[in-house]
Amino acid sequence: MQAAGIISDSQTYGILLDGLCKNGHISEALSLFHVMESNSLHLDILDTARALFSNLSSKGLQPDVKTYTTMIQGFCEEGLLHDAKELFVKMEHNGCLPNDVTYNTIIRGFIGQHKCYEALILVEEMVQRGFSANASNSSLVIDILSTKGQDPALQEVIKKYMPKDSHGMQEIE
Fold it and tell me: Where is 134: in which H helix or E strand?
């Protein structure tokens, strides 16, 4: 289009992406999406990602853990925690198990929106599945722990999460 002297805006690109996805040209849509990013065209990236994501299964493609995690991260960054949690649940329902990166991503999203109780429930689930928090999330949990006036039930969840030192003692109390 630009070679023909036509200047495209984000709306034009959005229409092209939609058409490519609807006609099964997912790889071309992804390539166009990357061109848009490199040209710093600003359209609602999350809406575009949603469209691409929703078209994967209709084309017989199954999203992997990295794809789900990327979408969950996008929802969290936009403050759409309900959508993030819904996709998190759907991912496992669709046979794609979350990994430590997925858990840490959604936990960080909940903590960032001051939904600490929900985040710590996810931490507990993550630990039960054999995963551990990354350093960033660990420091956020320590910050929560140091806050005065916490709900006793929340304190119990935190204590279950916090690692023990070499003497078997809780590191932070």
Answer: none
